[in-house]
Amino acid sequence: RTIQLRNEDLLAAAGQVPRGPQEDAGSSQGDCTV
């Protein structure tokens, strides 16, 4: 996982950003970088 995705995980853990199946499936692609 990239640093950005780890950041997303931290936000998701805080309950600010809901994690979707796409993030789990394409974690290496980083679809949240857009």
From TrEMBL:
Bias-annotated ranges (Polar residues): 25-34
Disordered, as annotated region: 1-34
Record protein name field: Uncharacterized protein
